[in-house]
Amino acid sequence: MNMKKVLAFFLGLLGLGTSTACSGQNYEDADVTAFAALADNPDVQLLDVRTAEEYAEGHLAGAMNIDVKQTTFHDKALAQLDRGRKVAVYCRSGRRSANAASMLAADGYTVVNLKGGIMEWQQKRRPVTKDMTEVDAFRTKSGKVVRMHALMHASIRMEFDGKEIMIDPVRQLGNRSVDYTQLPKADFIFVTHEHGDHFDKQALLQLSGSKTQLVTNRRCANMLGYGHAMANGDSLLLNEDIKLEAVPAYNTTEGHLQFHPKGRDNGYILTLDGLRIYIAGDTEDIPEMGQLGDIDIAFLPCNQPYTMTTEQLVKAAKMVKPRVLFPYHYGQTNVLGIPQQLNEEGIDVRIRHYE
Q1: CA 79: distance to chain centroid?
Q2: Which of 20, 277, 340, 347 is 20 to 30 A from 289, alpha carbon to alpha carbon?
Q3: How far is CA 28 from the centre of its chain?
């Protein structure tokens, strides 16, 4: 046995590849089986670095898309990826993702690259999806998984323990749309208030089945003629693992008070098996945010004059102190600078497509 074979043999025993050891590669490679295990782990960030057109043709479920060939790749990656969580990256054949993995690893991320890319993935008959929503997964206190889908603007889909939960479902805003007829019927629908970018009667009908429970503020319940109305301060136990609390959401800036008057609209705290999720609705940085208690995940809006400026959102985040923050409802507001402003607070800020 020559020296190269001897070296390869001992590196194999140590679990190392010769390319990593000899080339100074700063990330790991994984075959399809190992990568599939990573993709199923809610603590791993799944990243597709192909073009948006390639992504739309089919991608791994739950993968976010940042095109490595675009000049904005580095800034977007830093804004959207948490350095404390492993990144699993892939492209078509593994070449572009190898470049992305090297860049991310140099920035302090722990990165695993899919050898052979999505081509190898599909050759092994692994599934892909054309679902264009971004998905984040979290574990509850007893280990159950909560999956959150970024639909658009203020519309959020959650999957938990076999239940489908929808928040403010709306079918169309500008050139973006969601076809709710292609999604499962909802077990629970929560509506914060009656504005058209939150309240869509047809979407509610498309999502409703015989067992669907609809919860709204009083105005929406009156407009619909049905639904369970909650006022600020009310709480509702939906089942042994799901609790809902209605909290204030309103404007405070002079000249904007008419958009969301105090006492009319709801924000919600949704507790899923101990995981506390704050959906702020349309609000500014109100003092009640400092009294919410422990919050694991927060959705905070950012588009003046209707909700918050980026400065207000940062202030609100410091009051709420969530473990993970999703700026949402942000329209054309540039929210990419928010993660850096909250870096010292230890808040994991995730930018998703909630325009």
Answers
A1: 13
A2: 340
A3: 25
Tokens of 88: 């699993």
Q: Which residue in this structure is represented by tokens 């190392």?
A: 16
Kindly report the three-state secondary structure assignment for every residue of 278-316.
Answer: EECCCCCCCHHHHHCCCCCEEEEECCCCCCCCHHHHHHH
Residue 203 β-bridge partners: none
- CB 64, CB 85: distance < 8 Å: no
Burial of residue 146 (CB within 10 Å: 0-12, 13-18, 19+) is buried
Residues 230, 232, 238, 239, Cα dihedral to 10°: -160
Strands across the sheet containing 45-48? 28-30, 111-114, 87-90, 45-48, 64-65
Q: Give the ranges where 29-94 is alpha helix by DSSP (H).
A: 32-39, 52-57, 73-80
Half-sphere exposure of residue 292: CA atoms within 13 angstroms, side-chain side:
35
Residue pair 156/167 in contact (Cβ under 8 Å)? The answer is: yes
Angle between helices 95-106 and 73-80 (to 10 degrees): 60
One digit per residue, pLDDT tens: the chain, 355 residues? 455 444 444 444 443 333 444 458 999 999 999 999 999 998 899 999 999 889 889 999 889 899 999 998 998 898 888 889 999 999 999 999 999 999 999 999 999 999 999 999 999 999 998 877 778 888 899 988 898 999 999 999 999 999 999 999 999 999 889 999 988 999 999 999 999 999 999 999 999 999 999 999 999 999 999 999 999 999 999 999 999 999 999 999 999 999 999 999 999 999 999 999 999 999 999 999 999 999 999 999 999 899 999 999 999 999 999 999 999 999 989 999 999 999 899 999 999 889 8
Q: What burial class does residue 141 get, using C-beta atoms within 10 Å of its C-beta: 0-12 exposed, 13-18 middle, 19+ buried?
A: exposed
∠ CA(73), CA(177), CA(45), 5° rounding?
35
Q: Which residues contact 93 (CB under 8 A, 6 or more apart)?
A: 116, 117, 119
